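Shipment paperwork, digital attachment
Item: protein structure file
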Amino acid sequence: MRTLSAWLGGLGPAAALDLDELCACFLRECRKNAAALREARSAGLDRSLAGWRATLADAFRTVLRTPVATLEGLGARTSLEVLWERLHTSLPERPDIAAVLVARVVADALDEAVGHRFVDCYRRRARWRLQPGDPFPVAEPPLRDVFGRHLTTHPDVRDLPIDRTTRLALAPYADGVELVVDLDAPLAVPGEAAVIAACLPHAAPARELDFDPDAARGQFFGVRPRDEAAAVASVRALVAQALAAGASLVVFPELSVTAAGLDAIEELVAGRDVVVVAGSRHAVVGGSPRNVATVIAGGARWTSAKFNPFVLGDLVEGIASAPAQVVVRGAIDHAGRYAWSLAVLVCKDFLSPGAHQALVAARPALIVVPALTERTAVFEADAVGLTGATQATCVVVNQTDLPQSDGVPRNNPAEPEGPAVVIVTRPVPWALTEVVRRSEVAPPACVVLRLRPAAP
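Attachment content:
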């Protein structure tokens, strides 16, 4: 039988580790041996170890009094050695199952004992960009305070994760999409009366927007309003309407707000407790063409760059595709709890399988998608799926023409009701999906919705 000391030595470095990185060593062992752990769970072996979680957690509270600790120290000064020997004695032919059960129990015990310190460890390192297998804190949004007691989805009850604890997760292998979790965003938990305002500045994007085609390279770029002064005036008017309605979240569609529009928005919301996802714009950033979404909140701006280009006929959106990132901005409340988080993805990025994997792992409380598309059924389906998997509220705000508004037939048998301009999915049974169709509004328009609609 392999010794506990040898096993611990193979899980990570001998040096002292931050407590969340210490826990991650055991979660990575669970991920690596997922098949064995699932086999043990199917046989109910994990349930017989519930008492050991509490026993080890009590021991870890005594041992782990500093922000760092070594793997070897856990085995030397706790009852972990006893658990290791008992499991290997009872499962002599399956040392793989015995070891991975120890890893799972230790990870849960560490979470119970010192999980409240994981956020501090992560913020102290300030390394927001994560490689697969890196640990990051899991948000604990007060969803019952926002939506009430009866939530539709409970992901951890439905499908217990192999490689995460209550307060810590590992970055996934997400099809080449990098996960970024920044815990210094100026965000606040919205109240149950919070208002969402979807601002639609263009009635007919095909007529009102222009762009620069490059047939030789098969690309297009530089999407912009033909009349920028009128577009900025429309943005100003819509933000004023949103603020008058008491909006705490204001969202514009993709490619609907210019640099001048951003300045106008920032001026209007200065000093107000409101988050504005100001659509996106084509811009050259660091010498590279980008489609960049901008968020304005708490006197700060931050951006998310699109990585999955749109195809317009024979032309592809000429944006730099790397790095492909899902950026989750999180906020810490007065008690030091990771309480609220926001992810913004531009149009097709939301549909990317890698983005989906990153979002399921990070579980942001709010996912916002500025879009410009004539086909929205897939956005609605994916939003419902993500809400079910993560308890997130998804808000998609889209600009699109009415079918045949410019003489070009756009009837889509797959979407007989026409494209949506607003899609909101929530983790509550009475308002899981709320959709506003293009045929129901006349842009420029500000569509006002409640984060928590009244129950029927």
